[in-house]
Known about the structure:
heterodimer, A: mainly beta, 5-stranded antiparallel sheet, 51% strand, B: mainly beta, 1 helix, Like-Sm ribonucleoprotein (chain A), ribonucleoprotein (chain A)
Amino acid sequence: MDPSAGIQEPFDLIRLSLSERVFVKLRGDRELTGILHAYDGHMNLILSDVEEKIMIVDAPEGAPPGHGAVSIVKRKMEMLFVRGDGVILVSPPSRT
Amino acid sequence: MDDTTPPPPAAPASPPPAPPHTGSPTDFLKGVVGKRVVVRLTSGVDYRGVLSCLDGYMNIALEQTEEHVNGAVTNRYGDAFIRGNNVLYISAAEPI
Lengths: 96, 96
């Protein structure tokens, strides 16, 4: 089956991911995975059972860009409201 | 005396042979739906994939998406929704 069947507009991709675990890339080097419960036209999201990954680049003073040590901080949240303007990308679970 | 077949006038410059790519930005976007594209975000990250659809906010749905940072593949997504405000440009990666 063609995975793009029934997608006429980008939000259809999100609608088809309701109640599924989605990957969300946010501004500020943050990523979320969680179960999508609701969304709106701003891409405000309600997620549950969320894990957030925060990439922190700890560059020493004067180090060239991209040469700092990257540390990853993870945290879990039961229920989360994501303001839409922070969203860069949402990827549903692969339907391959 | 009655030579009724005058030579055709020197080919007028006028009838334009339909230049291959003209039209509005909207025409371009309609033309690339279903094609491979490169979407660059203002952050400099590139997403290469098949454009399944887009809307008036330039929200984008991509299939078979590869995330490229500094030329290296950093992630793959079966489907991806990209929020339009992050988009810098959409480039056709195959002939339209």
